[in-house]
Amino acid sequence: MQAKASLANLMRVAHTLDVVCIVNADRSVREALTDVVFSAGYVPEPFESADGFLKSGRRLITSCLIADMQSSVMSGLELFRHLVASGGAIPTILLTDHADDDVRRVLQAGLQFLSKPLEPSELLACVRTQIMNRNYSL
């Protein structure tokens, strides 16, 4: 009987944790972002590509998405627009190296962005804001 109660408590806790999916082709960046997200008490789910994220089936449990704007196949902005078009928008933070052009496009979409290199505290503040506000409408 006690094992069932413990399992039920574990499942309740699991459903209250926020999953933050990270889409970045650069392994070292992906691992660093995963560490930062984990250190703040979120559940990180790293993906090498937007396609990997889309095929994973994890988007239904994703509280926040962190995606790179410079992906060669599908950029973070393209991924976000794909999610919106399919009816599955997720609060999203886009990372960019090229602030000028990317910032204009991201701001037009109403999304948050961070320029690389980024500060972990700045990233976590954005994650908290996105999760709290669920700010993802176009």
TrEMBL record:
Q: Does the keyword Phosphoprotein apply?
A: yes
Protein name, as recorded:
Response regulator
Report any Pfam family annotated for this entry.
Answer: Response_reg
Q: Which residues carry this modification: 4-aspartylphosphate?
A: D68
The keyword Phosphoprotein appears for this protein: yes
> Its GO biological process terms?
phosphorelay signal transduction system
Q: Which organism is it from?
A: Bradyrhizobium cytisi
Domain of life the protein comes from: Bacteria
Which regions form coiled coils?
A: none
Keyword terms of this UniProt record: Phosphoprotein
**Start and end of every Response regulatory domain?**
19-131
